[in-house]
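Problem 12. The chain below contains 210 residues. Write out its predicted structure in token notation.
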Amino acid sequence: MTDQWTIRGPEFVNCNCAWGCPCQFGALSTYGHCEAVTGGIIEDGSFNGTRLDGLKWALLLHWPGEIKDGNGEQQAIIDERADPEQREAIRKILHGEATDPGATMFFVYNSTMAKVHPTIYAPIDIHVDIEERTASLKVDGVVEATGSPLISEFTGQPVEREIHFGTGFEFRSAEVGNGSAKSHGSITLDFTDTNALFGELHLTQAGVVR
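Solution.
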């Protein structure tokens, strides 16, 4: 592995599973298949000396069964403001091409793919507030997703739920919330009031920085 990179910044994930997502605990997915949209902001990042600060990204993901069984589809979306070097850097990161084997979720996702759709370069409107457990993600004509806190059925007030990852290939910890997403085009997603995670990514080619 010769590529050296790092990215740090907030990430929002919305998948089709029930809140908390059984997959996070090594169990089978809620409905027997997995699909998700995820996106983030690179507040601080570089790839072999090329700065990536301020750029945004998203991924659309679909598996007909469990992730481990493969046959997935994915499509990357990269901030159109990125110049050619930045675009290629982020593309390689999102497709796990510049990562030690198994070290990041990007590598793991890509290893299960039967089809990788052409990368989209477009304006990405994304906002993530980890502490408040709110998020919005929009790429015109491609995807819209929102995240919000879980609400107690007893008090009507937001509740705080967090998953701590002592090991793993994505977060150190993530807030759990509620999400809804719809996408159009190569990968079609449509789910309402399902699992959402809000966390800070801090990754390198060797995995999670702890």
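Discussion. Residues 5-208 form one domain. Students who got a different answer should revisit the alignment rule from Section 12.3.
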